[in-house]
Structures are given as structure tokens and as C-alpha cells.
Amino acid sequence: MRPGCAGADKFASELLPRLVAQGHQVTGYNRLYPGEEPLASEFGGVRLKHFKTISRKGFDTLLHSFKATVDIVRNDTADVVHIQNGGNSIFGLVLRLFGKKVFISQDGVDWKRDKWPWYGKLYLYLSSYLTAHGPSQVIFDNVFIKQEFERRFRKQFEFIPFGSEVGGGAGDDAQVLAEFGLKAGEYFLFVGRFIPDKGLQYLVPAFEKVQTDKKLVLVGGSPNPSPFEAQIKGTQDPRVVFAGFLYGNKTHALMRNAYAYIQPSDVEGLSPVILENMGLGTPVICSDIKENQFVVGEHAVLFAKGSIPDCQAKLEYALGSPDRLRSNAGKARARAEALFSWDAVTTAHVEVFNGRASGY
């Protein structure tokens, strides 16, 4: 995984090697931006093919998907093709015409995301019709968006949740904390892209108003430099720590030792980062969008979406309620263990690829 990668990359890095472990031959298509070089030709038994694309948001995905589609058709690399994101559904239609079984994962109502200009939103809205009717099946990790599509298109689709790395692997937590000048239990944490959907424009101002010696650690950034990222990084609060892009053991070390994890999103599917924190036993504070509530159940501190005052109030509540946070964390971990695991998610995908129901 590379700087700027997001939920789709995490999904692929967990699902595809597990498909290989179950005896399937798998090829993964990876995009390369200008100046980037291929990371490897193989990952966890998955054969990787790399194609160069452009830096322009949205068009980078379309160009990469076009090249991957041509390669699949020309070299007959697959019988089953899994496509991430309904914006690529036009290529699923092409692959169906060449006899491939095509499955699209749709994680949200993409045309409502603020990161897209008007023409991007229009394209994604129109693509939803191809998503609904073109592939062999559509797989949602968001049960509410699945229901919305089913009402709109009068068809049945599949739901498979995002997986949770329950437990996680232990690492040298002390070394990671020392690297960023942190102490266990003395910071709040956010992990994700610095884009409007994720809600940092609420979290950072809310935290600035909270009277505490604890820090706010922000892991991630924007795949391409943006005015929004510059705005977030313009805070004058010395308690806000920008850790940059981190993955694997370093991220898990920060999650394990956080006082609480905060997810202030306006838009989510079923958040993989919330699931990871639940699995690691980290208390969660999040916006009250229904997707977040579906993941955490009753075991998180919720604040009103888009509300800086309510976010501030819930941060202050969390600071004064450590016992409640620990209780929530234990129950949330049990919920993750019972409902979400990557092995179960992989098996469910294989069932759908074989034309059967996922079991969820």
C-alpha cells in the first residue's frame, strides 16, 4: 500500500491474498501515477499488473480502468472480474459483452460526495444505471445504500460488510509513540484522507476549543495536494500532530494506544477504520450518520454530523468519562468479533462469485 491509498486499496490487500489462499488464481491491476514505479510484481500470491495513468482526479481512474479492461480482453486473464466502484461500471458492460462474469462493489452514493465537480457527479449518477443493470451482481458494503438501490431499480443486490482486523498484530508500540512524541492514552486519533467527506473541517476546530493537554493525531493526507488539505494543516494549535501517511504496524500501534479514535465523516460506507479500531479495542467517537451507527451499534460516543459545537461537547464528555469509553470499547470489540472478519468476508465473496447468496 502506498501514500494516498484508501479503503478500496485496503479491501484489495485483504481480500485478494485470501482468495489465493483458498486456491484461486488472482490478478490485481494497480495504477501508477506520474513519477511512480511499480512496488512489486506479486503480493500475497496475487499477480500484479501495473498501468500508468494521469494525475487528474476522476480521469485517472477511467484511464486505468480502460487499460485494465483492454488487458483482460486481449490476454483473457480472468473468467471472473471484480470491479471496485460503480464509476467503472461502463467497463463492466464491455467485459460482459466478452463473456466475463462481472461483479461491482459499490460502497456509497458517489454522486453526492463533495469532492466531485458537477460533471463528475453527473457522470457518477448516470453510471448508477449501468451499475444496477450491467454486471452479474452488485455487492454493497453499506446495507442502507443497498436498500436505496433496490428501491430505485427494483432489483435484489448483495450485502457483504467490510472486514475488521480483529486483534491486530502487536509491534513495538513504545518506539512508534516515541517517534511522534506521544504517550499512551494521551491523544485522540484520526486516520484517513484529508478530503471534505471525512469531516476534518469539523474535528479540528472542535478540538481547538477543548481545554485538554491531550493531543490530536491526524494520520493520512490527500493523494494530490489540495486547498482543503492546506486549510486543515493551517491550524495554529500545537497539540495537533500531523503524522503523515502510515500503514500496518505503525497505524495499529497508534490505534491501540489512543485515548479514543474519532471519525467525523459526512459520508461513509461501512468505515474500515472504525472496524479496525473496534477490533483493536479502541474507544470510538464518530458522527451519527446511519452507516457509522450500523457499525458501532450502541457502543460508541456519537455527535451530530457536521456540528462543531456537538463534536466539541462529545470530546469533552469523552475526556470526563474514561470508564464509559473503556466499557464501550470492550463491547465494540465483541461486536466486531461476532459480525465482521476478513475470512468470512472472503468466503462470502466467493459464494457470490459462484452465483449463490453471500449469507449476510
What fraction strand?
15-25%
Query: Count the strands?
Result: 13
- What's the arrangement of strands in the largest beta sheet? 10-9-8-11-12-13
Helix-strand pattern: HEEEHEHEHEHEHEHEHEHEHEHEHHH
- The number of helices is 14
**Whole-number average pLDDT?**
90
Low-confidence stretches: none
Alpha carbon gap, first and last residue: 28 Å
Q: What's the shape?
A: globular
Helix/strand/pairing category: alpha/beta
Major β-sheet, in short?
6 strands, parallel
Multimeric status of the protein: single chain
The helicity comes to 40-55%
Round the Cα radius of gyration to an integer and report it.
Answer: 20 Å
Report on this structure.
With 360 residues, this protein is an alpha/beta fold. Helix content is 44%, strand content 17%. The strands form three sheets. Strands 10-9-8-11-12-13 form a six-stranded parallel β-sheet, sandwiched between helices. α7 (200-208) crosses α12 and α10 (272-280) crosses α13. It starts with 6 loop residues before the first helix and ends in a 7-residue tail after the last helix. The mean pLDDT is 90.
